[in-house]
Amino acid sequence: MSTRGLLDSLSHVLLLSSASPATVQSAAATLYSLLVVDDYRPIIGAKRDIVYALINIIRKENSPPRSIKDALKALFGISLYPLNRTTMIELGVVPALFSLVVNDSRVGVVEDSTAVIAQVAGCDESWGAFQKVSGIGVLVDLLDHETGSSNRARENSVAGLLSLVLSGGHKVVANVQGMGSRALDGIADVAENGSSKGKNKANALLNILNGGSGGFRGPRFDVPQVHSS
Length: 229
Ligand SMILES: *[C@@H]1O[C@H](CO)[C@@H](O)[C@H](O)[C@H]1NC(C)=O
Ligand SMILES: *[C@@H]1O[C@H](CO)[C@@H](O)[C@H](O)[C@H]1NC(C)=O
Ligand SMILES: *[C@@H]1O[C@H](CO)[C@@H](O)[C@H](O)[C@H]1NC(C)=O
What we know:
The protein is mainly α. The protein is built from 14 helices and no strands.
């Protein structure tokens, strides 16, 4: 079967309301395995049907946990393409992801959801969508050790806040600053105790929040370059 033909049938299955959980599960798993191959990412991401079907899986209360995990991994792969983030936001990925973070306590779900959140935060449309779900407040909550979040979730939260600040500019900076010392302490903790990637992002974020050298003038001017490796 050609890749296109396969994708058409996968999206058909994913959108079929009568599909059994096992069928949905295997379609989501197939998509995820295709997304591991770089070449297929743009092809899959180009299909709004598929993006929509994946978001539906994470939105539906009765989706089997394995399908949610596979759908999150597939959405992560799609979100690595900046152009796809806008589509994902248009199709409602932000409230679906935050609802998982807030309401789903299953192991790994918060980590995988925040990984996608950190990616989609990096586009022009993200701020509006995040505001509607009090996204900054939720990300700052995750930074607080008291909420029992894992290191991975906390680093994803920092990455998400950094992406939001870089794409949204001043108003987002003011909003994060408005969260007060709880936000700053949490970010400082990642800057000191996180992985090397986490430290870099947390330091970059702290620089911006503290006004950096000469203050924040917008992403293109004085934001330290963060190399992810
Ligand atoms: C996803 O990204 C790819 C590569 O940039 C692009 O070709 C495709 O149109 C995008 N898909 C959507 C639905 O935005
Ligand atoms: C979490 O679940 C409650 C109860 O089902 C619901 O009212 C609330 O809107 C959910 N929160 C999010 C962020 O979706
Ligand atoms: C780093 O971790 C140590 C040990 O848990 C803790 O005492 C310290 O306060 C943390 N650093 C920050 C800046 O929170």
